[in-house]
Design brief:
The protein has 104 residues and is an alpha+beta fold. It has two helices and four strands. Strand 2 and strand 3 form a beta hairpin.
Length: 104
């Protein structure tokens, strides 16, 4: 099935109904979340790191949330991704940053 509903994910992913699950569909629009130190200016750095690997960031989608104690921040960004390799490069670039603890 090739209809991705514009989000890069298969409409059957996780359906649990016996339908064939094909995973992410490329090219597509994806969302990534980076969690890290609140003092690291991640609101600006996460989109820049994604652009540095050649991805088109949808800046209007950038949102963030501070942890209860204010020590950590999560930054979520949508981006257009042409291939699985670029998707994996996005995660690798973010995880390589010393202020980012993990990505989702």
């Amino acid at each position: 099935m090739s209809d991705t509903k514009g989000n890069g994910k298969s409409p059957n992913a996780g359906a649990g109904n016996g339908a064939e699950v094909t995973g992410f569909q490329f090219p597509g629009e994806f969302e990534i979340t980076a969690v890290g130190n609140a003092s690291g200016d991640l609101k600006a750095r996460v989109p820049r790191l994604l652009e540095d690997v050649g991805l088109h960031v949808l800046h209007e989608t950038v949102r963030h949330r501070h942890s209860r104690e204010g020590n950590f921040i999560s930054v979520t960004v949508s981006f257009n991704c042409p291939s699985r390799e670029k998707y994996e490069a996005a995660h690798a670039a973010l995880r390589a940053d010393p202020d980012i603890k993990y990505t989702l």
